[in-house]
Automatic annotation (TrEMBL), chain A:
GO MF entries: ATP binding; sulfate adenylyltransferase (ATP) activity
Entry EC number(s): 2.7.7.4
Protein name according to UniProt: Sulfate adenylyltransferase subunit 2
Domain Phosphoadenosine phosphosulphate reductase: 41-264
Gene: cysD
Keywords: ATP-binding, Nucleotide-binding, Nucleotidyltransferase, Transferase
Originating organism: Streptomyces kanamyceticus
TrEMBL record, chain B:
NCBIfam families attached to this UniProt entry: CysN
InterPro entries: CysN_GTP-bd (IPR041757), CysN_II (IPR044138), CysN_NoDQ_III (IPR044139), G_TR_CS (IPR031157), GTP-eEF1A_C (IPR054696), P-loop_NTPase (IPR027417), SO4_adenylTrfase_lsu (IPR011779), T_Tr_GTP-bd_dom (IPR000795)
GO MF term list: ATP binding; GTP binding; GTPase activity; sulfate adenylyltransferase (ATP) activity
Organism expressing this protein natively: Streptomyces kanamyceticus
EC class (word): transferase
One Pfam entry name: GTP_EFTU
Keyword field contains Nucleotidyltransferase: yes
Keywords, sorted A to Z: ATP-binding, GTP-binding, Nucleotide-binding, Nucleotidyltransferase, Transferase
GO terms (BP aspect): sulfur compound metabolic process
PROSITE patterns associated with the record: G_TR_1, G_TR_2
Name the record gives this protein: sulfate adenylyltransferase
EC number(s) given by UniProt: 2.7.7.4
Domain Tr-type G positions: 20-234
SUPFAM superfamilies the record matches: EF-Tu/eEF-1alpha/eIF2-gamma C-terminal domain, P-loop containing nucleoside triphosphate hydrolases, Translation proteins
Length: 311, 456
């Protein structure tokens, strides 16, 4: 009973950090730990909001020096053109190095086969893991958040992957205090999730606070879409609509950005960050429940994909 | 779940959202104490369980023939957990109210996985220990209290659950609260709040209970929203472990040399005299860069970049401290450890010790005792520690380290022991002369049930 510090009431203390400041500081700490302990880290960059926030945090963590990591994009071949344009613009603006692992190249070479349902998300695993092995990346930053999905809720900030990039949830290292253990054998790597403790709302609030530029598909716009499996998909060369599916023009936006074949748009008139935040705060659906087909495949879809090396 | 609380809460304004602070807390309870129901209700009533998640739970519950949705399915994320119906691993949950954001470390109650409670408690400002009102304080409750004390979690909530099954009797609650408070205070838990609840019926979780008029305290959520998190930094030793040296070497910043790190404790000010460990060189703080903004003062847990007046040799693993408050460096560390690996930790074993941003070689010189949490007695010279054991160790490091007592600083008083062969995290260490409990361990306290009982 002798070590109790005097406590300052509630949130009035001048030393209390807002929750966004606390999350930001924690994420920056994680980036710097990786920079200090690994040889060849890389940031997975999809052009989606989570990876955009990751990059923004990395830029702040090392300023006024540049980000000491390169970027890696797993290109499914069915990406939104607006997102690819955004990706290339950001890479040029910050003088970054971009690696691309292309699902289309694997399909063209015959080493991956298109799935009957046309979904390319699960096909990303092989190009991703082979790229990691080939480039000898030893730390791979992902924008995964524990609030996204219940298998992700079990994920460590530093998550060891074996030489086959596999995740074994039963053999995870306990993670205590802020002492991250990044030790790994040659061939193994560590997936690092600096946004582990962020929620979708935190990400949007942070984007608003920091005035971070986003691809326009995150804001309401008119788009040609058609309905498949209860979701509004973008019509396009990737394989939709089929004969029995009808295209219509709707006012929509995206909550997540992934492969066009499995990422649905939501009806929305939110054209500003404030409107998006208000919409999410009131939404009764999770972002994945609303717009991701691949997570609905089975109760353990995410866990199974993560075991194989998916991010 | 009662119907009164299923309405969506009002969306918060942007100002409300950004003014909130963060509370990290952990839950602990034995199997079947109703922890999943409590967690489920906190998530549910704070709108953190959304329609599609609830539908998924309802669908799976129905397919298994259950009558009501099994809220444990919300939190058991792994295939093996659902198959066995138990929580194996700590999971992190997020929810928010208008007053606060919460990060909940949902830790398993199963005896085999108590090391995960250590994991959850290591970053927690508060721990909720659940007991079943019908059973009262049991062995596992004492272990949970001891772990919270050991990890120096500042606030402990005793949630006496299933009050509906004891007719909401005040005397039942009072007896349990008294027994627990006496035990936990003896362990050194600084603040204990006991709350009678029914997680199933919703009494005193979010809404005050009309069934327990005799209780005048806060509900669980109200307490979580208002419990003060200590921000009194004036009495803390200021510590900045150097993580990374930032040197742009560009035309714009040819001479910039900044020491990046997250302030582990206390405050740093521009103009302050500082000493760098282990070299002992001194300088003055020339500037503090708070992620791109120059500031005059910064404090824990801010991530900053420190600029010094003199160009001295500093690298990752060094510790910057105020010159008037320099910790003593030592190669002989006395600590309490919780063993977290499946392989044992033995006397004579060579390990790596990670303290803040520094990792050094070390050897386990002695394991003087192993703690029996049931009665807080010490089992002398156990020779080794196995998974979930808590024990005293003496470790000799290859290089001097500047450590604080864990009692003074959870961040600079903690360390990991790592297996150099395969990188496994072996043990979590807390620096200090003695376990939190001020009890005199009886010499004859070698519990008869020790061999069989020490398997949590």
């Amino acid at each position: 009973m002798t070590t109790v510090a005097t406590v300052t009431e509630g949130t009035d203390s001048p030393y209390a950090l807002s929750h966004l400041d606390a999350l930001e500081s924690e994420a920056v700490h994680i980036f710097r730990e990786v920079a200090g302990e690994f040889e060849r880290p890389v940031i997975l960059f999809s052009g989606g909001k989570d990876s955009i926030v990751m990059l923004h945090l990395a830029l702040k963590a090392f300023a006024p020096a540049g980000v000491p990591f390169s970027l890696l994009h797993v290109d499914t071949g069915h990406n939104f053109p607006e997102v690819i344009e955004y990706r290339d613009r950001v890479v040029a603006e910050h003088g970054l190095r971009l690696h691309v692992a292309s699902v289309q190249e694997y399909i063209d070479a015959g080493t991956l086969r298109e799935r009957p349902d046309g979904t390319r998300n699960p096909l990303q695993t092989v190009p991703l893991t082979e790229k990691i092995q080939r480039e000898k990346f030893d730390a791979v930053f992902g924008g995964g958040r524990r609030d996204e999905e219940k298998a992700r809720a079990k994920e460590r900030v530093f998550s060891l992957r074996d030489e086959f990039s596999q995740w074994d949830p039963r053999r995870q290292r306990p993670e205590l205090w802020q002492l991250y253990n990044g030790r790994h054998a040659p061939g193994e790597h560590v997936r690092v999730f600096p946004l582990s403790n962020w929620t979708e709302l935190d990400v949007w609030q942070y984007i608003a606070r920091e005035e971070i530029d986003l691809p326009q598909i995150y804001f309401a716009h008119e788009r040609d879409v058609f309905k498949r499996s209860g979701m509004w998909l973008t019509a396009g060369d990737w394989g939709g609509p089929k004969e029995d599916e009808e295209t219509e023009k709707r006012l929509v936006r995206y909550r997540t950005v992934g492969d066009m074949s499995c990422t649905g748009a939501v009806d929305s008139d939110a054209t500003t960050l404030d409107a998006v935040i208000a919409e999410i705060a009131a939404s009764r659906l999770t972002e994945r429940g609303a717009t991701r087909a691949d997570d609905k495949m089975s109760e353990a879809a995410m866990e199974d994909r993560k075991r194989e090396g998916y991010f | 779940m009662s119907n009164s609380t299923t309405e969506p809460v009002q969306p918060l304004s942007t100002e409300q959202l950004s003014a909130t602070t963060l509370l990290r807390f952990a839950t602990a309870g034995s199997v079947d104490d109703g922890k999943s129901t409590l967690v489920g209700r906190l998530l549910h009533d704070s709108k953190s369980v959304l329609t599609d998640q609830l539908e998924a739970v309802e669908r799976v519950s129905a397919s298994r023939g259950a009558e009501a949705p099994d809220l444990a399915l919300l939190t058991d994320g792994l295939r093996a957990e659902r198959e066995q119906g138990i929580t194996i691993d700590v999971a992190y949950r997020y929810f928010a109210t208008a007053r606060r954001r919460f990060i909940l470390a949902d830790t398993p109650g199963h005896v085999q996985y108590t090391r995960n409670m250590v994991t959850g408690a290591s970053t927690a400002d508060l721990a909720v220990v659940l007991v079943d009102a019908r059973n009262g304080v049991i062995e596992q409750t004492r272990r949970h209290a001891a772990v919270a004390a050991l990890l120096r979690v500042p606030h402990v909530v005793l949630a006496v659950n299933k009050m509906d099954l004891v007719s909401y009797e005040e005397s039942v609650f009072a007896r349990i609260a008294e027994e627990f408070t006496a035990y936990a205070s003896e362990l050194g838990v600084p603040e204990i709040t006991a709350i009678p609840i029914s997680a199933l019926a919703g009494d005193n979780v979010v809404e005050p209970s009309s069934n327990m008029d005799w209780y005048g305290g806060p509900t669980v959520l109200e307490h979580l929203e208002t419990v003060p998190v200590s921000h009194d930094l004036t009495s803390c030793h200021a510590r900045l472990p150097v993580q990374y040296v930032i040197r742009p070497q560009t035309a714009e910043h040819p001479d910039y040399r900044g020491y990046a790190g997250q302030i582990a404790a206390g405050t740093f000010r521009v103009g302050e005299s500082v000493t760098v460990l282990p070299s002992g060189r001194t300088s003055k703080v020339a500037g503090i860069d708070l992620l791109g903004t120059a500031v005059d003062v910064a404090w824990t847990p801010q991530s900053i970049t420190l600029l010094l007046e003199d160009d001295i040799d500093i690298s990752r693993g060094d510790l910057i401290v105020p010159s008037g408050d320099v910790p003593k460096a030592t190669q002989d560390i006395e600590a309490t450890v919780c063993h977290v690996a499946d392989t044992a930790l033995a006397v004579g074993q060579r390990v790596l010790l990670k303290h803040t941003t520094r990792t050094v070689k070390a050897i386990v010189k002695e394991i003087p005792s192993r703690l029996t949490l049931d009665d807080l007695s010490q089992h002398p010279e156990p020779g080794q520690l196995v998974a979930n054991d808590i024990g005293r160790v003496l470790v000799r490091t290859a290089e001097p380290l500047a450590l604080d007592a864990y009692a003074d600083s959870r961040r600079t008083g903690s360390f990991l022991l790592i297996d150099p062969a395969d990188g496994t995290t072996l043990a979590a260490g807390m620096v200090g002369a003695a376990f939190a409990a001020p009890t005199d361990a009886p010499a004859e306290a070698e519990a008869p049930a020790d061999e069989a009982g020490w398997d949590f």
